[in-house]
Every structure is written in structure tokens, then in C-alpha cells.
Model the fold of this input.
Amino acid sequence: MCRTGDIALCEPASTSVTPLSGMRPLLQEVEYARLLLHLPEDEALSICVARGADRVKRGDTVAHVCRTVPDRSFRRVSAGVYVASPELCLLQLMKDSELVSSVRLGFEFCGTYSFKVGGTVEYGLAPLCNMQKVEKLSREVGRKRGLAGNRDAVHYIMDNSGSPYETDIAIAMSFSTVRGGYGMKGFSLNGEIEIPERLRARLGKDSYRCDFLWEEKRVILEYDSDSYHGFNRRSYDAIRVNALTELGYTVCTLTTNQLRYSMSFDTAMRSVRCCLGLRNRSEVRDLPARRMRLHKQLFDGLRR
Done:
């Protein structure tokens, strides 16, 4: 709703870090908020109250006790009606989710895609928020009752993911070996490389956008997905790789077939680590089993 409606355009409200009103919301006010936000009858409405005694006795309403809220963490929709900012909404959603689900939510909120009803994905959207705002709000709320999210997940969130698979690849690469990942940090998603003027006429482009870019290491990982990037691109991809190589970058490719199986994915990730100058040794004894579990959690749907 925030991506397609007017709520995202509302101005942040200066609530200041003060206690919420001690008044219990009236049922008529709750119903007015539901109508204003176009909530379906079977969808629960979550509200914040100052005390447990202020909870609303209604089956389709969930009350969270929040005695204080950080400044500008709500947006004013109408007189007396405020909605949580995307950052606060994300922290709330992550509160009861396990780590991978929480990180996925963070990537989606800070990315340019969104899951719709029925599981379809819409691409090319403006991000709802960014990593810096989420981290800032996470520090401000600390572990306040009713507000704190999954703080471990916040550390893994990145900006500008363009697809669910980019998100899952980024999770696998950035998670520590203890969590079954590959401990590869320092990359940006969909980072842009400017093409020197001497090559622009020949290539017909001013810049290249790269799926995963380690600018300092001059290493690129491209996800070659037929479903997302389209067909009949071998010629274009060859020109692109040659141009990036000429600019001094090492280009690695990851295909959907490599994603499907944990062993082939592991081989691809080890290759990227070598290009980054990282050792492939680890002190985690059961690391292969941990990586297989994480891979299954992230990519098991590809094998169906």
C-alpha cells in the first residue's frame, strides 16, 4: 500500500520522544482508520497504545504497548490518524520473524521490487526507505517494548536490490560462515561503473550497472537469469564483459543452474572469494552442512 498509494508521500510527523496519549482509542476511531487506509475486513489493524489497559477489545485489531516513540517515526494521514513510517513498519515486521525472513524484508523495503498478492513480483519501484534510516531508527528504539525489531537482521540489510534472487545471493555472500554464508562484504548492489569517454562511442553507453560490485577490489559478479534479464543476450554480454575487462575489472558470472544446487553454488562462491583475494579455509567444522542448510532455505524453490 505504501508503494502504490499516497501514504508514502505524507510528511513525517514530529511526534518527539514523549509518552503516547494515555487515552484508549474509541472503536469509532479504529473503524475510521480502517476505512481511511482501505484495509480489507479480514486484515488486522495494528495500533500503538501507551498502556496495557488501553488495548482495544476488538478481534480485527492488535494493540502494541509503546510508551515512547522516536521523533518522525509516524506519518500523518489525516486528523488524528498516523501510520508507521516504512522504517518503523519494517522493524515491527521483523520483530517476530526469523533471521533470513527479516533480512529479506529489509532488502525488499530498501530495494526496487515488491511482492504482490499471489506471489507475483513488481520491479522498477522506488525504495520505501534506505539502510541508514533503518539503522538509525533501530538504534533509537533500542529494545523498547513493542518497537524493537530483529537487530541482528538490520546489520545485513543492503540498499538497491533489484530482484528477490539478487537479495538471496547477497544474503548467502554476506552471511558469516557461522550462519552458513561466505563472509563476503564490501560489495554494492547494482553499482554503476562510468565508462571513459574514449570508449563511449564504441560501446554506445555512458555507464554499466553491475549486479554485485566490489569497487575497491575491481571485482564484479553478474547474475545471469533468463527470467529477469531476458533471452538472446550472449553477444551483448560478451561485449560488456570485454569492456569491463578492458577497464581492469574481473567479471564473474552466476547462472540459475548454479543457484539450483548447493555444490555448484559453493564452487561459484569459492571462485568469487579467490578473485577477492580471500582464503577459502574456515575454522567452522561443519561448514559444508551449514552452507547446505542456508542454500536450501534460500534457493530450494528453484529445484521444484
